[in-house]
Amino acid sequence: MDAVGWRTPARWARIGRWLLVPYAVLVWFTAVTEPFTVVAFAIAVVGLLGIAAAVVVGMLARGRVATGVLGAVLLIVGIALLALNPIPGGIDGIGDWWPEAITQPQLVGSGYWVMASLGVVLTGGGMLVTLLVTGLLGGTRPQSS
């Protein structure tokens, strides 16, 4: 029997994707005041958590070893991605002619890189924390018949 409503991980992932849109749009415009950008970022983090939760639930059905290995790899890769942001903070000569109302593309790209890296870290961390909690509580997976 398929889960319906809020229990469906696929729905979490779909809603999570849409919650990333306000930040993806607002980050392009410098005229937007900071509180709006902060709220959009918070909404995007909630979206990332929904996507991460959907991945965690999907991985738990595959087994604890696979979930643990993938969680550790995602956590390490996500931290590396955060540290190794390849997009420069500034490009020489672009500030002279770039319009003030639009954020420079390298800043937007860097923001997107950080958001994607944060999603990878949250997913990997979510997998490992879920394994820790299920291990401490001694939960077993239900047997399928």
Model description:
The structure is a single chain. The two termini are 12 Å apart. The protein has six helices and no strands. 70% of the residues lie in helices and 0% in strands. By secondary structure, the protein is mainly alpha-helical.
Element layout with pairings:
Layout: H1 9-19, H2 21-26, H3 34-60, H4 64-83, H5 94-97, H6 105-137
Q: Could you name the key traits of this structure?
A:
mainly alpha; single chain; 145 residues; 6 helices
- Describe the sheet with the most strands: none
Which segments are poorly predicted (pLDDT under 50) over 5 or more consecutive residues? none
Helix count, DSSP H or I runs of 4 or more residues: 6
Mean pLDDT: 80
Question: What's the Cα radius of gyration?
Answer: 19 Å
Q: Strand fraction band?
A: under 5%
Measured between the Cα atoms of the first and last residue, the distance is 12 Å
Q: Strand-and-helix sequence, N→C?
A: HHHHHH
Helix content: 55-70%
Which structural category fits the helices and strands? mainly alpha
What general outline do the C-alpha atoms trace? elongated
- How many beta strands in the DSSP annotation? 0
Q: What is the structure about, briefly put?
A:
By secondary structure, this protein is mainly α.
